[in-house]
Write a structure and sequence with these properties.
- The chain is an alpha/beta fold and about 425 residues long.
- The protein folds into two domains: about 260 residues, von Willebrand factor, type A domain (Rossmann fold); about 120 residues, no CATH class.
- The strands form four sheets. Strands 5-4-3-6-7-8 form a six-stranded mixed beta sheet, with helices on both faces. Strands 2-14-10-11 form a four-stranded antiparallel beta sheet. The chain has a three-stranded antiparallel beta sheet with strand order 9-13-12.
- Helix 1 packs across helix 7, helix 6 runs parallel beside helix 7 and helix 7 packs parallel to helix 8.
């Protein structure tokens, strides 16, 4: 139901949610393909999610070495695997209020009344955001893909169906294009946050669905100093800023589902104080907030609206986001006979560029981001996640090889 709602919304109301005023859409919006399982890549396996497939016991890895596992009679299929890339679309608010100096030079209330730079010698919120984004991009792995989009893109409520710089593999050339794009943009206009974010989902979803398009995990990194502008509301789809924001939150939740796999990070800079709860709900719905975070009680997004040093706070937030997108996920291979994968008969073998092959055990002793040191299935049981030391070891060995082996009982820790 959520997936159908997402597809319908993205097709019918994305530009409508950009709301009144010129909409600088570059082309007509074709209906997106229906979300499908395996948006992470064409080779993602179709897995029958049956409780009986989940192993009740695992064999200690010491009982069978890696070579025996790869060559043993129980192994039906072994496929060299690549870590899935991460696609980051930075969605940056360039509304008029971003031209203000941040507090304490200009308070958020004063900026709301007078969108202007008071101290010509001091950086604006836009200057600091641009520097932080550019610095962060320079630290990202070449396994990432990057793009950037600004909102509004005119003097009112304009948004575009295509990013200012479409998402492409991280390289010196791609970063130079983004830097040049940033340098040619200045703050102006209102805040069509809803329409811009919906179009970001639509763009990523279509890019993941098309042949030869993006693959892997996709993220929208939303940076804003406000909330949806009332004058950017289109009564045909949502009557006011509040109802438009509610619509976006529903679509963010649908986009974060495993079979769409687009998650949303939210960074709120000074000026976003009044919209803090909505931004936190958006991060929660977008699958990037802490599991136990309550948006009505605490900030579930990166709320730096009251930080004294905006530049340092932005750097910390974006570096944290970069770390969270630095995942170690593998596609689950499809058996040659096209049968369903038995999740009790899956193993992971890592062969470093120097040294013998080694079994990476399945480790269910803790969540992947809370102390596990082996591998686990993702919640949808469609991907394999390397955790802790296993992730860092594999990531740091560019000449190594990793195999997913089907057919032998799962190996657990010694």
């Amino acid at each position: 139901m959520r997936r159908a709602l997402l597809a319908a919304c993205l097709c019918q109301i994305a530009l409508g949610c950009a709301l009144s005023g010129p909409r600088n859409a570059d082309q007509p919006l074709p209906a997106p393909e229906a979300p499908r399982a395996g948006q992470d890549g064409a080779a993602t396996a179709t897995v029958e999610q049956q409780p009986a497939m989940v192993p009740s016991t695992v064999v200690p890895s010491s009982q069978l070495n890696a070579d025996a596992l790869l060559l043993g009679s129980c192994a039906k299929y072994a496929e060299p695997s690549s870590l899935l890339p991460s696609n980051l679309l930075f969605l940056v608010d360039r509304s008029g209020s971003m031209k203000c100096n941040p507090p304490p030079t200009t308070s958020s209330d004063d900026c709301e009344m007078h969108e202007m730079r008071v101290d010509e010698a001091a950086p604006t919120k836009w200057d600091l955001t641009r520097r932080a984004v550019i610095t962060t991009m320079g630290t990202l792995s070449n396994t990432n893909a990057l793009g950037i989009s600004y909102f509004s893109n005119d003097s009112r409520c304009g948004v575009s169906s295509v990013p200012n710089v479409p998402v492409a593999p991280n390289s010196v050339a791609q970063r130079e294009v983004i830097y040049s794009s940033f340098a040619g943009v200045q703050p102006n206009g209102s805040t069509p946050l809803v329409g811009a974010t919906l179009l970001a989902y639509k763009y990523l979803h279509q890019s993941l669905s098309q042949e030869g398009g993006l693959s892997g995990n996709s993220y929208v990194v939303l940076i804003t100093d406000g909330e949806q502008s009332e004058n950017c509301s289109d009564p045909a789809y949502c009557k006011d800023a509040q109802s438009c924001s509610e619509l976006l939150i529903k679509q963010a939740e649908a986009a974060a589902e495993a079979d769409v796999n687009i998650r949303t990070f939210v960074v709120g800079v000074p000026g976003s104080e009044r919209g803090s709860t909505v931004l936190s709900r958006l991060a929660k719905a977008g699958g990037t907030a802490a599991k136990d975070c309550d948006p009505l009680v605490h900030s579930c997004h990166f709320d730096i609206s009251r930080e004294d040093n905006l530049e340092a706070a932005l750097q910390r937030s974006l570096q944290s986001i970069a770390g969270k997108t630095f995942t170690c996920e593998l596609e689950l291979p499809k058996p040659k006979d096209m049968s369903a994968v038995d999740l009790a008969l899956v193993n992971v073998v890592f062969t470093p560029h120097t040294g013998p092959a080694q079994v990476i055990p399945q480790d269910l002793s803790a969540p992947c981001d809370e102390g596990s040191q082996g591998w686990q299935f993702d919640p949808a049981q469609q991907l394999i996640r390397l955790c802790g030391r296993s992730c860092s070891t594999v990531r740091s060995d560019r000449g190594g090889r990793i195999d997913v082996v089907l057919g032998c009982p799962v190996r657990g820790p010694d």
